[in-house]
Amino acid sequence: MSQQLAYVILTPYSLYKSRNGGILSRLISRTSLDLAAMRMFAPSAELVKEYANNIVSAPDNHDRKIQELLRDYVLLNFAPDPKTGRRRRVMMMVFRGDDAVRKVRAVVGNLSPDRRGGETIRDTYSDLIMDEDDGRVRYFEPAVLAAPNELEAETKLKLWARYSDSDGGLLENVIAYPPGEKGERTLVLIKPDNFNFATGRPGNVIDFFSRTGLYVVGVKVLHMSVAQAMEFYGPVRDVLRTKLKEGVSERAKTVLEKEFTFKIPPAEQKSLGDILGPLHGDNQFDVIMRFMSGRIPSECTSEEDRQKPGTQKCIALVYEGVGAVRKIRDVLGPTDPSKAPPGSIRREFGSNITVNAAHASDSVDNAQREFAIVKPGENNFKQVVEESYGKL
Fold it and tell me: Where are the alpha helices (DSSP H) in 90-149?
């Protein structure tokens, strides 16, 4: 069967309750599909109306009453707030692979007033509460929306892609703050070590960040190019060249004394560090480059080659809220997982100072620098849709 695209849309309520990590975890681990794209939307009234009008369809597994509930829910909860005009946050996830639509729908599940055992996403996160006497719906929250078949997946992905520039990206003015409070933004990268296998790790790491109470306002599946990796980690290179001198001189001294059976005086040991430290630092920088992009700069034959998307996958997220930088860094933990406190992301998921699960900006200024490199508002979602279905 040919590669299909399937989507899952997280409702504003699922995002408000920070359920995006748990939902993503299930989708990756239970479908084994490729996470091809993610994008935040703040839907306009026009997008909401057009999408809602496409929800009721004969081929859907849900009965017509459920379809109509979904349509009415979207019209009410996806549209801008009628009182303030503030747009609501919606997250789109796109998966790619064989039989993707059926696999995603199986994990998402159907909507029913008879809750089963938490097997599907909707078993766990959705609610359909009906009055026992007259059968009226008292409360309805679908948690996510997904296409029932391949044709509808294509139709709705094309629809959202058409609006993805105007209504999606790095969202602005979607969070309301009490008087006297001001939000700030920070960047998080869910690093490639979380994508070695089709496990729930990426979603689990995001779940940890959800403890902060911050809001996701931007998201993107990132294949970092060598050029991006060099610019992103450029400030680290000089630090490595200097910081590693003492350690490499100690190691060199031990090896040489064992090989030549004479003692190396302190002055000569320092010279060894001056010579070998920068070389070792450059080597460790290449280790980071390969980890983040899949290649090192010397393997690129041209500047165009350096700019090509890498082979390693990350998720870039932008979190917004009061004290965002500090809150995210507290949950992340220090660079070295062995020194991270219990309950931190790097203690739970990291292996060493390079393979340490996630990155987070260490200041508001650095976040701005990193935004410019990673471009979390870039529309990769539309690109993925057009690669499958042609230009819109």
Answer: 100-108, 121-125
User: How do beta strands 184-190 and 144-146 pair?
Assistant: unpaired
Q: Is the pLDDT of residue 113 over 80?
A: no
Residue 359 a catalytic site member? yes
Residue 180 structure tokens: 């006297």
| Cα distance between residue 27 and residue 357, in whole Å | 19
For the chain, the maximum distance between any two Cα atoms, rounded to a whole number of angstroms, is 93
Rounded to whole angstroms, the Cα distance separating 226 from 229 reads 5
Residue 343 CA to residue 73 CA, distance in Å, equals: 37
| 146 three-state secondary structure | strand
The answer to whether residues 93 and 20 belong to one domain is yes
Helix H or strand E segment including 240: helix 234-243
The C-alpha angle 244, 249, 255, rounded to 5 degrees, equals: 130
Q: Are 13 and 99 found together in one domain?
A: yes
Q: How far apart (Å, rounded) are the C-alpha atoms in residues 225 and 311?
A: 8
Phi, psi of 70 (to 5 degrees): -65, -45
Share of the chain above pLDDT 90, in %: 79
Q: Which of 62, 223, 280, 359 is catalytic?
A: 359
Give the domain range for residue 284: 229-305
Q: Which residues pair with 10 in a beta bridge?
A: 91, 144
Number of domains in the chain: 3
The one-letter code for the residue type at 266 is P
Which residue intervals of 8-149 are DSSP H helices?
12-16, 20-31, 45-53, 64-77, 100-108, 121-125
Residues 219 and 326 in one domain: yes
Give me 103's structure tokens: 């696999």
Statement to judge: residues 317 and 368 lie in one domain: yes
pTM of the model: 0.93
